[in-house]
Amino acid sequence: MDKRTKLIITAKRLFSEHGFYGTATARIAREAGVSNGILFHYFPTKDLLIKAMFFDVKDRLFDYSVGQVYKGATLKESIYTLWLAAVEFNLENANDFEFIRQFETSPFYRTETELEHRYVQLCLELIDKGIEEGQFKQIPAMLIFKSISAQVETTVRFLKMNNMVLDDVEFTHRLFEMAWDSLAK
Amino acid sequence: MDKRTKLIITAKRLFSEHGFYGTATARIAREAGVSNGILFHYFPTKDLLIKAMFFDVKDRLFDYSVGQVYKGATLKESIYTLWLAAVEFNLENANDFEFIRQFETSPFYRTETELEHRYVQLCLELIDKGIEEGQFKQIPAMLIFKSISAQVETTVRFLKMNNMVLDDVEFTHRLFEMAWDSLAK
DNA sequence: ATTAAAACTGACTAATCAGTCAATGGTATA
DNA sequence: TATACCATTGACTGATTAGTCAGTTTTAAT
Hints:
- Two copies of one chain form a homodimer.
- The first copy, chain A, is an all-alpha fold.
- Chain A has two domains: 1-44, Homeodomain-like (Arc Repressor Mutant, subunit A, Orthogonal Bundle), CATH 1.10.10; 46-183, Tetracycline Repressor, domain 2.
- Helix content of chain A is 74%, strand content 0%.
- Chain A contains ten helices and no strands.
- The first copy, chain A, has helices spanning 3-18, 25-32, 36-42, 46-66, 75-92, 94-104, 111-115, 118-132, 141-161, 169-183.
- In chain A, helix 2 crosses helix 3 (36-42).
- The longest helix of chain A is centred in the first third of the chain and has 21 residues, at 46-66.
- In chain A, 30% of the residues are buried.
- The A-B interface holds A 17-22, 101-102, 104-107, 111, 137, 139-140, 142-143, 146-147, 150-151, 153-154, 157-158, 161, 174, 178-179, 181-183 and B 17-22, 101-102, 104-107, 111, 137, 139-140, 142-143, 146-147, 150-151, 153-154, 157-158, 161, 174, 178-179, 181-183.
- Chain A binds a DNA duplex through residues 3, 24-26, 34-41, 44-46.
């Protein structure tokens, strides 16, 4: 594994445990088993490290989930696939989940940054289509997206809090149906 | 206004703008117009300041909202009253909203801390009653509470993002109905 | 008026941290 | 072999910060 990746993985673990400012760059480098200087070679500032990590997580979520959506699926099926993939991904990558949660409520976060990413763009396109076709209620696509995202987060947090795994697909599926019903026409 | 209150208000503003660790205690004291030392007289450590602020916000939310629930109201009416009060409170107290958002995703936060508070306790009792009476779906009360809270947050964020105020009670009411429908039997 | 306790001040410090830099090692190309 | 260019190191620094403390002022009780 190259040092850049090592740094990102270690930083994610430490950030999710101790927060952005609770984690010194020197510590990230030490626990990643690389020198202090190399961190600033790859990420000129701590802020840029954090921003790079955000895109790293979204990229991996995109790769993990979008491939699972099969062609010819209905809209509901597609969104369920993305939903389930997101829940799985967040359960299996606890540090990514915690990192994103902290990032999105931190002063680093801007809506514009998020909109740049293809994962968000894809979701919004899908939802837009759903609104046009009259499958969703007539409310802004962004609100539907945020609402679904919030329910995914709630689901993941709940499953974690109760030490559940994804054997409980049925439970997770029920939660999806609830969220869907509230947004569908 | 006493200095303790001044400190809490100033800290909340600075924290919501620059984050917990982006804000120096010395700066809080300076902008509150008090000495550096007095901050540590009231709050021996920065961590305790942050924790005290959490309880301050929850207390004020409790005082603001619970009084509005009138006796003899149905369960749905009661919960709608609390919902609307929470949305109003968060819109009118932007710094409190941002502070809580950051706090709940920070390493300071623990579920146990939250459960100690009477606001959360009251909400859970109400939901428990609703489950017993068969008005809610058969899922854990905590999940219903977290789900509603997440929807309140989403609502507030959306209204703020679009510079809406609570003239749009109808819109907010629609969002409540959506959330309610997904949780009610 | 006296006393004691509490509120308050602000200069100070020990520790920490983000970022620098001069030097070294490795690798590829000509 | 010589040259050039990254990757890498780790000791170092200037700036910042949470928390201290010795002393002063205010408040309240007897």
